[in-house]
Design goal:
Blueprint (H helix, E strand, L loop, with lengths): L2 H22 L4 H12 L4 E5 L4 H7 L9 E4 L3 H4 L12 H4 L3 H7 L8 E5 L6 H12 L4 E5 L1 H4 L12 H4 L2 E4 L7 E5 L3 E5 L1 H22 L15 H9 L11
Parallel strand pairs: 1-2, 1-3, 3-4, 4-5
Antiparallel strand pairs: 6-7
Helix pairs in contact: 1-10, 2-10, 3-10, 6-7
Length: 251
């Protein structure tokens, strides 16, 4: 292992430790409150991310150890369920197009009690800001997971001139640096991207916090168990049926 590879570990762990310390001090409580309130009101968590931030939505929705009343909204939905051609998924066009938001809402089943968690490291692209604005206009609470250092250093691309962090009710900082990379090789080439690691950690902290809060009420949190253990499919399907037609689980 090279010295640069070795240097990446403290870059990642120092940020995870900061997030854990902030969570211990209650920094995630406002987001946990919004999620718990939404579930108690019969809503679900709508997770959205574009590019590599789709990995955050996958951490929130549809994985072992995660909450069952969760749904991942993705740009590909306007191709799978809407009117867009598959060729439009090539390149960054859809990610930057605010007009895609209306059709994303049209092809998604969204309850008035749902809460949105939107992840974007830059927090400035048209679809990301657009879906946050559309959610707010429809009366939903919005939680943003974004890099404050990066988003404050770049110009918003949405016609409103706003960033994701400007729209959200609660903002959680991924602690990723501007450009996401933490190290350099050669002639200043950035490597060691960290936002996916910290965002996944944030997703798990939120899930744990919500599950604990539900347990405190005397209820059993609706959590997935691994489908690759005996009884997993049966357990998961029984709980998924409580949210039939409101959550999508695709390959």
């Amino acid at each position: 292992m090279t010295s640069t590879m070795t240097a990446f570990l403290p870059e990642a762990t120092s940020r995870l430790e900061r997030l854990a310390a902030d969570a211990a001090d209650g920094a995630l409580d406002p987001a946990i409150d919004l999620i718990v309130d939404a579930l108690a009101a019969g809503g679900i968590v709508q997770a959205f991310g574009t590019g590599h931030s789709q990995a955050f939505a996958m951490e929130i929705a549809g994985r072992a150890g995660g909450l069952i009343p969760t749904n991942s909204i993705a740009l590909r939905d306007v191709v799978l369920y809407g009117s867009h051609d598959p060729s439009e998924l090539e390149g960054p066009h859809l990610e930057r197009d605010p007009s895609v938001v209306d059709e994303l809402f049209e092809v998604s089943t969204i309850n008035p009690a749902d809460v949105f968690i939107i992840a974007s490291n830059s927090g400035v692209n048209g679809s990301v800001v657009g879906i946050a604005l559309a959610a707010k206009q429809r009366g939903h609470k919005v939680i943003a997971v974004t890099s404050l250092e990066h988003t404050n250093a770049v110009t918003p691309k949405h016609p409103s001139g706003r960033r994701l962090a400007d729209v959200a009710d609660v903002v959680i900082d991924t602690l990723a640096p501007f450009g996401d990379t933490t190290l350099t090789v050669g002639d200043g080439i950035g490597v060691g991207a960290v936002s996916s690691i910290t965002a996944a950690f944030i997703a798990q902290l939120l899930t744990i916090g919500v599950a604990e809060r539900i347990v405190e009420t005397g209820a059993v949190p609706p959590i997935y168990i691994s489908a690759n253990r005996p009884g997993g499919d049966e357990h998961n399907l029984a709980l998924e049926n409580l949210y039939r037609d409101r959550i999508r689980r695709t390959a």
